[in-house]
Every structure is written in C-alpha cells, then in structure tokens.
Write a structure and sequence with these properties.
Largest interface: A-B, 66 and 62 residues
Number of strands of chain B: 2
CATH architecture of the largest domain in chain A: Sandwich
Distance between the termini of chain A: 75 Å
Structural class of chain A: alpha+beta
Order of helices and strands of chain B: EEHHHHHHHHHH
Number of helices of chain A: 8
Radius of gyration of chain A: 27 Å
Shape of chain A: globular
Strand order of the largest sheet of chain A: 1-6-9-10-8-7
Mean pLDDT of chain B: 76
Strand order of the largest sheet of chain B: 1-2
Helix content of chain A: 25-40%
Number of strands of chain A: 23
Number of domains of chain B: 2
Oligomer: heterodimer
Low-confidence stretches of chain A: 65-106
Shape of chain B: globular
Strand content of chain B: under 5%
CATH class of the largest domain in chain A: Mainly Beta
Largest sheet of chain A: 6 strands, mixed, barrel
Structural class of chain B: mainly alpha
Low-confidence stretches of chain B: 1-36
Chain lengths: ~375, ~220
C-alpha cells in the first residue's frame, strides 16, 4: 500500500476504493496498525532530543562482541607480519655488521599490545585470560578479552576478593558486579570484591598501574559510595568518570576527573576535584597539588591512542615500553629531556612510531631483541 | 609519511598524525571529528579499529541520522535502533565498504535503505516519494544518493507542494532542493543573510507538513 494512503486516511480524503485497500492493510497485522498509529501521533511532531550517550553505550556494548575483536586480532596479526618484514631495515640503519642476526627467536619479536590479563581468585588460583580463552563461573563470564561480573550472587557474609593483573603489552576491560566499568592499561593490577555488600561502601584497590573508571551511580546502589584505594590514597566517588595513574616507576599518583565529583583523600588531607582538574600526590612527601588537565590527552589510552603533549622523550619511552613490552636503554641521557608532541594509534607497530620520531633528527633508535637503545 | 611536523614544538597544541597530515585538536571535544578529519581519514581510522575516532564520528552524526530515520519511521526508538545497526555495520564491515561519495552520505543512504526495507516488510511502498521528499526537506545534509529517476519524482512533487507557499519562500526552497544551492549561495544570490535562508526553509518545512493533507490532492497519482 502506498504511504500516501496513510496521510489521506488521517485527512479523511480516501476514496471508497482506497479505503478498502487501507482497511485490508491495517487489519492484516498488529505491526501495520502500530505503524499507522505512530504516523498519526508523530507526523506533525518535531522529534525529541536524541540521547547520544545512551546510543553510544548501546553500540559500545555490541562492538565489543567477539566479531569486533576478531577484526582487531586480524589487524594485529597482519601488523606483526609487517614487523618481521620491516624491522631489519631499522636495525641496519646504524651500520651494524650484516651478519648480526636481527631476529633470532620468536620471543624477541616486538609485538603490539593486546587484550590479556591474569585473574587471581580468592583461593590463589590463577586464570590466564586472552583471546580465544573463555572462562565462566557463577559470578563472572569472560570471553578472554573482557571480564564481566554478574551482580547478586548469593552469600553476602563472605565476600570474595579477586585480582586482575594486566602484564606489560596488555590491556583489559572489566565490568564489576555493580555495573562499574573499568579500563585497565598495561602493567596494572586491580583488586576488587566479586560482589558488593548492600550497605557498605563499594571498595576496590588499584594496586599499581593505570585505570579509567566509569562508576555506576550511588543512587542505583542504596547511596553507597565507591572507593578506590591506591598506594595510600583514597578516591571517594558518588558516580563519575575518572582516571588514576600510579605506575610503580612513577613517583606520584595522578587522578584526573572527567565527569562528576570526587574527593581525594590521603591521611587527613582531603581535596575535592571538579571536572577537568587533576590531582598529583607525591608518593614520597605526600604533598598534593591540583591543576587543570588536558582530559582528552590523559584518557586517550583507553580509546586506543598514545597522546604525547610536550612530553620528554624519557616519559614517551616509558609509555611505549609498557605497551610494546620492550626495555629502554638511554645511551645518550641528554636526549631524554627533549620534548615532543604527537598522537598515535596504539594499534600499530612500534617501529612506525620510532621512525617518525627519528625523522626529526633529534634522536636515534636501535633495537636489539626487545631492547630499544636511544641516542 | 610526511613527518616534518612531528618534533619539538612547544608552541603547538596537541595534534594527531593521520595519513601524514598534522591535525590540531580543537579546544572543544565535540568539534574534533567535524572540523579536523576528512571523510577518508575517518574511514581509514575506523578500518584500523580506532575507537576514539569512531566514537567522535558517532557523536557527530548520530542525532541527525536518528532524525532522518524518524522521518520515515515516525518512532524514535525504532529510528535509534536502525541508526545503531548502521554504525555497528560500519565498525564491523569497514574494510568491505566501497564508499564513493562521503562517509556521512553513505550512512544516510544505508539508513534510508534500512528504513525502506522495514516499510517493505510492513507492505508500505512510497512510489509517490512523499517520504523521500519530506525527509529531504527536513534534513540539513545534502542527500546525494538518489537515483535520477527518484529525483525526478521528488522534484516533481516538491514543485507541486511549494505552490502554496509565499513567492520568496518558494524560490528559496527551489534553489535549495532542486538546484542544490548551498545556504551561502542562496543568501548571496538573493541578497539576504544565511540566517534568513535557514529561517525561511524552516518555516517552509512547517507549512508543507501542515498543508500536506491539503496538498495531497495535488500529488501525482502513481
């Protein structure tokens, strides 16, 4: 039936013959009737505001399906092959003797980081998680690339703690039992309960490393706060998005607030953050300072980017070493102080990134196995 | 890759190297994909499974595509579902897509196809192109994917429905939708401001919708 008939029906201008066609159509199914009613109700109306955030959440949940991840894996595999083909070129730049074997065994190949982690259960059992390895229990499911806890699993008297450890060269996505989403960067460890008690604060511990939290609001959990403990610091949250960076080699803990409001506590010292601000707590002196932060820059890692803004080369190399699981040797220490700007996709070969930096003629890189020498 | 711009640059803002070009980040998050990435770079980044660019592109296009779908489906939830499916398709099948025009134009075309398929499933046809014409009128985006045959009918219908409008408004509608002038070009040609062009088009849209019932009698029967 022509759409036009629906408009004519609404305007009572159908001919007898058309009316018959219309009546047959609408009697045919509930969906037909429902469409007619929608046109009737909304034809003259301007549409409501579209909720972009909700739309994104819905998509984001779906593109994490194995299908999407397979694509990623294909890409990583292709890139790894490319690395084998192109690495000797970089290595030979420094006129090494030609007979030097550049890549001697598979362990020495520098690879792009992937989704991987080790889950440690309450009883100490370690479960490796990586693509292709799914793992499911009563309280959790993992497809090997993300881990999702399902709420309200029984006995609340004895709440078990799990630990998720992300190695260098890894990253992982975790959904806690209360629905809080956590992105975990390379070289990171998070400890958390399998379920949260109904009235007590929801407490997790970022043992070390970097994590981005999207906390499920307190209003959905009897008003219970969400607490993140990190090496003496505690972040008190009501429902918000923020990033904590506290790698073992860092001398400070950085907490950056994207949305909402959090309180940073260290002993008796409490500071509130508003969105766009970053606190920096010195691990030694326990001095805390607060400054404006470039939020996009701070959280870009969770969206698959390296974002370097006026960053000294030593710091850039630290970031790269965690994702590509390589060691860095600064042969010329002065080079470490040179600062660079740039944004790179994390899903590419280390060699690409190094060659771009190298082309500035400010520094040279030589790879020996999994060690990168900078001079 | 042109790398000359990656270097020690203290004055410079943070930027992004995509396909060799340095693209500066703007101050506001929202403007990122709109102003700084051309269609080719976006699809290339999506092929590389760059979630960041994909998300920005989604945020940029989602509302207008939902509104576009809604002009066929008249239901916001259905419209959101269809647009989300299209975006998921884009993420999963980016490597297989053969995009001849712009990426956004491609998404518009996919949304329209899915809407028409849905209508087909409930046995609704639109040979008179009433829906196409109205969605064209209410979209700010230049829809470039209609076949010549479709366009002929749409223009034919449009010419009929604008007859009821005041002269000036009629002229603007014709320039915009039949001769494909941009807002600025219409403004210059008629010696009015771009804002006036937009306001006139908005009023024309409202009038046409309101009068649709009346002008239906004028529509060519198929």
């Amino acid at each position: 039936m022509e759409f036009k008939f629906i408009l004519k029906k609404l305007n009572n201008t159908l001919t007898a013959e058309e009316e018959q066609i219309f009546n047959d159509w609408i009697a045919e199914s509930e969906v037909h009737k429902s469409y007619f009613e929608k046109v009737q109700a909304n034809y003259m109306e301007t549409p409501d505001i579209v909720d972009i955030r909700k739309g994104w959440e819905s998509i984001n949940a779906k593109i994490k399906s194995p299908k999407g991840v397979n694509n990623l894996w294909k890409y990583a595999a292709a890139a790894a092959v490319l690395a084998l083909l192109t690495l000797p070129f970089v290595l030979n730049r420094e006129e090494q003797p030609i007979e030097t074997p550049t890549i001697t065994n598979v362990d020495e190949v520098i690879e792009i980081g992937t989704d991987k982690a080790t889950l440690t259960l309450e009883d100490g059992t370690k479960v490796p998680l990586e693509k292709g390895k799914s793992y499911t229990t009563q309280s959790l499911t993992s497809n090997g690339q993300q881990l999702v806890y399902t709420a309200n699993s029984g006995d609340k008297k004895e709440i078990q703690q799990n630990t998720l450890t992300i190695p260098r060269g890894g990253q992982f996505y975790l959904v806690l039992a209360d629905g809080t989403k956590v992105w975990l960067n390379s070289d990171t460890e998070l400890r958390y309960p399998v379920v949260f008690g109904p009235d007590a604060p929801r407490k997790v511990e970022l043992v070390y490393g970097e994590a981005y939290f999207e906390v499920s609001p307190s209003t959905e959990h009897n008003g219970t706060h969400f607490l993140v403990a990190t090496q003496g610091q505690e972040v008190d949250v009501l429902g918000t998005e923020f990033n904590i960076k506290a790698f073992n080699e860092d001398t400070y803990i950085e907490t950056t607030l994207v949305n909402g409001k959090v309180a940073i506590k260290d002993g008796a010292n409490t500071q509130n953050l508003t969105p766009g601000l970053q606190s920096r707590l010195d691990k030694g002196t326990r001095k805390m300072s607060i400054a404006e932060a470039d939020v996009n820059n701070v959280i870009s890692w969770k969206d698959g980017l390296f974002s370097f803004k006026n960053l000294p080369l030593t710091e850039i190399m630290k970031v790269l070493s965690r994702w590509y699981d390589v060691d860095i040797e600064m042969i010329d220490e002065t080079k470490g102080q040179i600062t660079f700007n740039g944004v790179f996709n994390r899903n590419q070969e280390l060699e690409n990134i190094l060659s771009i930096i190298e082309n500035t003629n400010e520094a040279k890189f030589t790879a020996k196995g999994k060690t990168i020498m900078v001079e | 890759m042109d790398v000359s711009q990656f270097g020690i640059c203290h004055q410079r803002g943070i930027g992004k190297i995509i396909s060799g070009a340095w693209v500066e980040y703007p101050k506001s998050k929202q403007a990122f994909s709109k102003t700084n990435l051309d269609s080719n770079s976006v699809i290339q980044e999506i092929r590389n499974q760059n979630r960041f660019v994909y998300k920005k592109f989604f945020e940029d296009c989602y509302p207008e595509l939902v509104q576009y779908a809604n002009s066929y489906l008249f239901d916001q939830n259905w419209s959101e579902d269809i647009v989300q499916e299209v975006f998921i398709h884009l993420w999963e099948k980016a490597n297989d897509l053969d995009i001849k025009t712009s990426l956004k134009g491609y998404l518009y075309a996919m949304v329209r196809n899915r809407c028409l398929n849905f209508l087909k499933s409930i046995k609704i046809t639109d040979d008179a192109k009433v829906l196409d014409m109205q969605s064209m009128l209410s979209s700010d985006y230049d829809l470039e994917f209609f076949s010549n045959d479709d366009l002929k009918i749409i223009h034919h219908q449009l010419l009929k429905v604008v007859e009821a409008l005041p002269d000036k408004m009629q002229q603007i509608v014709k320039m915009r939708f039949i001769e494909n002038y941009k807002y600025a070009e219409i403004a210059e040609e008629l010696g009015i401001t771009v804002n006036t062009v937009k306001t006139q088009l908005k009023r024309a849209r409202q009038k046409i919708t309101q009068q649709m019932a009346i002008v239906l009698a004028l529509l060519a029967t198929q």
